[in-house]
Design goal:
Shape: globular
Low-confidence stretches: none
């Protein structure tokens, strides 16, 4: 269950290769920027991987944060409403959590642990940021086919 609706995010870059998007997101996380990588199928262009910064309750909060990013010399900064995500159950053991992060990278997702958490369950994480439920569903199915328990929900 989502504790607090935060449908807005800031798109800062896109890549054709998942590994590059995840690398950029991880570099930003190391610098204390709340970044995440997520796949997206763009009609006529194929699969892309976006790097997003944080999640916000409303457009004004996101626009304010976007201004800060622009002042920090981020070249591309675009506020987007992406209210749909995929909820995944996470293993209780620390080794299982690392395995989960590794497995998700194969699908172009990176894991970001926002504060406050987006989910009320400590045994659940949210991945992805999608415009519609229909946009999220194929990615949830791929994760299900790989053995994950998923649910598409509003973020």
């Amino acid at each position: 269950r989502v504790t607090q609706k935060r449908p807005f995010t800031i798109h800062i870059s896109s890549f054709k290769k998942a590994a590059k998007a995840i690398e950029v997101a991880n570099t930003l996380i190391q610098k204390k920027d709340p970044a995440v990588a997520t796949p997206i199928m763009i009609p006529g262009r194929g699969m892309w991987y976006r790097v997003l910064i944080d999640f916000y309750e409303n457009r004004q909060q996101a626009e304010t944060a976007a201004t800060v990013l622009k002042n920090r010399k981020f070249h591309y900064v675009r506020v987007m409403k992406r209210p749909w995500a995929i909820a995944l159950d996470i293993p209780r053991q620390e080794s299982g959590k690392k395995d989960l992060q590794t497995a998700l990278r194969q699908f172009g997702f990176s894991v970001y642990d926002p504060s406050p958490p987006l989910s009320s369950s400590p045994d659940q994480i949210l991945v992805g940021a999608f415009k519609t439920k229909n946009e999220a569903t194929p990615f949830a199915r791929r994760l299900q086919d790989a053995g994950f328990k998923t649910k598409v929900l509003r973020r």
